[in-house]
Specification:
alpha+beta
Length: 183
């Protein structure tokens, strides 16, 4: 589970990554009772807009997913915001699902900071895994269903361009969509 601002763009990018079987927009970090868009948008629930990624480790590694996350999906130096979206619900956070993922995420962040890759400290939090609650149906596959939406066109379509440019071997033209019942 990864959080990096509005889940529309995060999901949209990972739906175009080879080896990703499913990317679902949703909420992590709070309780199931408060996992509703209107409540999460208040910034008071503890949730972050997140994406749960299911992948085939024979095609892509967790480390490669993190590389895409840090280099294409968002700016990990922005505290509790991404672009025009502000609040703890838009924080940069990794929710490792096991000890190995936790070690890899922490090590990768430390490596990026030591190399001063971003010119500012990374504020991405490595948080304890929590229950993931899928977002409402109209949030799923939003980038792919609404590529000309002004928010998507300005904030998220450039991320797809960067994915194609930076990781041509990992980019797939046809996204794996939640609404298509992909697994």
């Amino acid at each position: 589970m990864l959080a990096a601002g509005c889940f529309w763009g995060v999901q949209g990018v990972f739906e175009h990554v080879k080896g990703v079987r499913r990317a679902v927009s949703g909420y992590a970090g709070g309780t199931e009772q408060t996992a509703h868009y209107d409540l999460v948008s208040t910034g008071t629930t503890g949730h972050a807009e997140s994406v749960e990624i299911t992948y085939d480790p024979t095609q892509i590694t967790y480390g490669q997913l993190l590389r895409i996350y840090f280099s294409v999906v968002h700016d990990p130096t922005q505290l509790d915001r991404q672009g025009p979206d502000v609040g703890t619900q838009y924080r940069s956070a990794v929710f490792p699902q096991n000890d190995t993922q936790q070690r890899v995420a922490q090590s990768y962040i430390a490596q990026l900071n030591r190399a001063s890759v971003f010119g500012a400290p990374i504020v991405t939090r490595v948080e304890n895994a929590t229950a993931f609650v899928p977002a409402e149906a109209h949030h799923q596959d939003f980038l792919n269903s609404n590529p000309t939406n002004s928010y998507i066109a300005i904030n998220d379509m450039p991320k797809l361009d960067n994915l194609m440019r930076q990781y041509p071997d990992l980019y797939r033209e046809q996204p794996v969509l939640v609404g298509a019942g992909s697994s």
